[in-house]
């Protein structure tokens, strides 16, 4: 069996275990995806406490509704990211609507609905970018981390990674191309996080 077949098989088995109500399965899913869920929720909401709440909601949803996941449609990771995105965006909308009702708006400000949708679009792009980075192959992610966080050029990145300069440029270019899809009006391949 090819190595690439392993995740879908794991996803199918995990969905079956969750459907049977195995608490240990939820623990395994939590261990594997909690940091992704929290990161995406925090990216959308910009608030640690709210991200904690969404993380709890996501895993409660997984526990209570495992039948809504279909391994034939997408990987478990993608489905969980989609659930996280939907719940976080809904919480953002609810929070912003509450703030809009509490505060008096100046006449020159854009309507609250337009401002809310701008925030939702911005948060969605940020969450998609975060998901793309966490999902890309480690060699691409490592090259981007060196270039972005450590301010390395492609020559330094190549030396740090022990690859040719052409390979470093290829990894950086491909990683940036993947990240650029976060700004698309659609969603990146494999991410069902539509607003």
What's the main sheet like?
none
Average pLDDT rating: 82
Give the low-confidence spans.
1-6, 185-195
Q: End-to-end distance, in Å?
A: 37 Å
Roughly how many Å is the radius of gyration? Answer: 19 Å
Structural class: mainly alpha
**SSE arrangement, N to C:** HHHHHHHH
Number of strands: 0
Architecture overview:
The chain is mainly alpha-helical and 195 residues long. Helix content is 72%, strand content 0%. It contains 8 helices and no strands. The protein has helices at residues 6-19, 23-45, 48-64, 76-102, 112-135, 138-148, 154-161, 165-180. Helix 2 (23-45) runs antiparallel to helix 3, helix 2 packs across helix 4 and helix 7 (154-161) crosses helix 8. The longest helix has 27 residues, at 76-102.
SSE blueprint and pairings:
Layout: H1 6-19, H2 23-45, H3 48-64, H4 76-102, H5 112-135, H6 138-148, H7 154-161, H8 165-180
Summarize this structure briefly.
The chain is mainly alpha-helical and 195 residues long. It contains eight helices and no strands.
Characteristic terms for this protein:
mainly alpha; 195 residues; disordered C terminus; single chain
């Amino acid at each position: 069996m090819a190595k690439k077949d392993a995740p879908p098989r794991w996803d199918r088995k995990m969905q079956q275990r969750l459907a049977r109500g195995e608490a240990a399965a939820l623990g395994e899913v939590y261990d594997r995806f909690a940091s992704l869920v929290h990161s995406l929720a925090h990216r959308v909401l910009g608030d640690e406490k709210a991200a904690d709440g969404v993380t709890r909601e996501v895993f409660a949803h997984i526990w209570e509704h495992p039948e809504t996941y279909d391994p034939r449609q997408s990987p478990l990771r993608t489905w969980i990211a989609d659930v996280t995105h939907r719940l976080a965006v809904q919480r953002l909308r609810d929070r912003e609507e509450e703030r809009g009702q509490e505060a008096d708006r100046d006449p020159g400000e854009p309507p609250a609905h337009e401002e809310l949708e701008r925030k939702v679009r911005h948060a969605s792009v940020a969450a998609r970018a975060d998901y793309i980075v966490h999902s890309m192959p480690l060699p691409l992610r490592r090259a981007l981390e060196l270039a972005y966080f450590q301010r390395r050029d492609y020559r330094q990145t190549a030396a740090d990674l022990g690859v040719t300069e052409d390979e470093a440029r290829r990894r950086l270019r491909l990683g940036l191309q993947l990240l650029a899809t976060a700004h698309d009006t659609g969603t990146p391949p494999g991410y069902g996080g539509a607003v």
